[in-house]
Specification:
single chain, Hypothetical protein af1432, globular, Phosphohydrolase, HD_domain
């Protein structure tokens, strides 16, 4: 059962891996040495995994799309720009604005993006999908940040690199079927 859930999470995300709009996030670093793109993939992966393992009923498609777009702010927040100040508080608004410009979003997807930084966003999420993404984002952000330290390399391998490798490997296999 465990491998099936991991495989399904990966296969659900493959649909989005080649999206040119999402690939823009590869040029920005999120935490440590993890790109914003990989961070969003991990948040979507763990959100789906937790939703399934905990038997939480919710919209799987909206959960995945909201998780993939939650950090679609498209800038390097590490650069010392005046408008980058308070990034943690402000980037959900930038991400939502960009996502609405580039994608057609449901109300739940907007809620996920808008509230993924709660409690910094002050108003708590109002749907299960947003709570799941908020939790997965907090968890994976912590893993990316802590695991960027040398002595936590095994932790990074387990929580970050292994799931990413599985998603990219499965994506390559599925692409080979069409060639």
């Amino acid at each position: 059962m465990k491998k099936e859930i991991h495989a399904e999470a990966s296969s659900r995300l493959i649909f989005y891996l080649g999206d040119e709009r999402l690939l823009q996030m590869k040029q920005f670093i999120q935490h440590g040495d993890v790109s914003t793109y990989d961070h969003c993939l991990l948040v979507a992966y763990y959100s789906f995994l937790w939703m399934r393992k905990l038997h939480i009923r919710c919209s799987e498609d909206e959960l995945i799309r909201g998780a993939l777009l939650h950090d679609y702010y498209l800038y390097d927040w590490h650069e010392k720009e005046k408008w980058h100040r308070m990034h943690g508080f402000r980037h959900p608004g930038f991400a939502l604005s960009n996502a609405q410009r580039d994608f057609e979003l449901s109300e739940k997807e907007k809620e996920i993006i808008r509230k993924h930084m709660w409690p910094l966003t002050i108003i708590p999420p109002t749907c299960r999908e947003a709570w799941i993404v908020n939790s997965a984002d907090t968890f994976i952000s912590l893993m990316e940040t802590i695991a960027s330290r040398k002595r936590f390399g095994k932790m990074k391998e387990y929580w970050v690199h292994r799931p990413l490798r599985a998603m990219y490997d499965q994506s390559a296999k599925e692409l080979d079927q069409f060639v």
